[in-house]
Amino acid sequence: MTPAPDRPLRFALVAGEASGDQLGAGLVGELSQRFPDALFAGVGGAAMRGAGLDAWHDASELAVMGLSEVISHLPRLLALRSRLRRRLLQWQPDAFIGIDAPDFNLGLERQLKRRGVRTVHYVSPSVWAWRSGRARTIGRSADRVLCLFPMEPDIYAAHGVDARFVGHPMADQMPLNPDQRAARMRLELPRDGTVLAVLPGSRLAEIGRLGEPFLQAARQVATQVPGLRIVVPAANPGCREAIDALVASSGFPPGAVTVIDGQAREAMVASDVVLLASGTATLEALLAKRPMVVGYKVARGTEVLVRAAGLLRTDRYSLPNVLAGERVVPELIQEDCTPDRLADAVLAWLRDPEAMAALEPRFRDIHMDLRRDASARAADVVEALVARQ
Prior knowledge:
single chain; 389 residues; alpha/beta; Rossmann fold; seven-stranded parallel beta sheet; six-stranded parallel beta sheet; 50% helix
């Protein structure tokens, strides 16, 4: 595919979910500074639209999770991808950047690459957790892979795939020394006393699986910690409604639980301990330098498929443990994710101030390693790629 030489550069981007939208906005901003006349189009959310993306579809249309959930949405997603492929080939982008959403983007990248479009996959799938041969498959789709974590490029290199560590934008954004007192003031939480942040997920399906055990665990902790304040961020109005219903049925005393709209990062910084779902939020808690307890349950169908196929190749699930190279925070997954075990793990942190204090320098070192001006480094790779055309 050879675009007209005198036209402005065209960058196509596809992001799914809020985290991908933020990454995409940073990349669009950096590329806009380097190529002021460039055009940006594809799939994104509010942040990418604000940065200058012509959003043909909203990122929320791709927000499904887990193998069984993807399968249930497969006809719709395949139809969307087919329409998008046709439109992209007609638009003739100079580069396509798929941001996360690997179930959707990798297939689209492969189809575009075969037609001569330069392709980039931003956010490596968790090749450290899955069979390493997956890295070779990803290389068939992407000319470049942009990795957020330092251990990932070597895995790709073993399979002849050009992958670059660019750092994590969240590490660029978050301060090395988070201000707990200021966060409590902003959330109108007591300056003194113990605060537990509870984050059961940003999707209704996650809240449906984790909301009840997380809140039951928090209630158990409250019986052991006088004056405990519990703060629960809700990612969107639908999540707020589900969380409010769970809180109302959980038997908390008046004023013990504060449900807030958004502000998950603020809640983590304000807290003493975070109880949260496995995922990107665990990195955010690490960067907030907070002790945490990680819990997760996937749909039964997803668990059966993964175990039957022997896909998983890790004994660490949460990013803090993966990045530390050892288990520094407790992980309670599937049948271990019970209210009793979650509560015990939270109380273990609260009863051991020395362990809580020892975690902070470990998390600070990881923060420094991830702080690389990621959006600029990602733009460097994309700029070099289009310069080769």
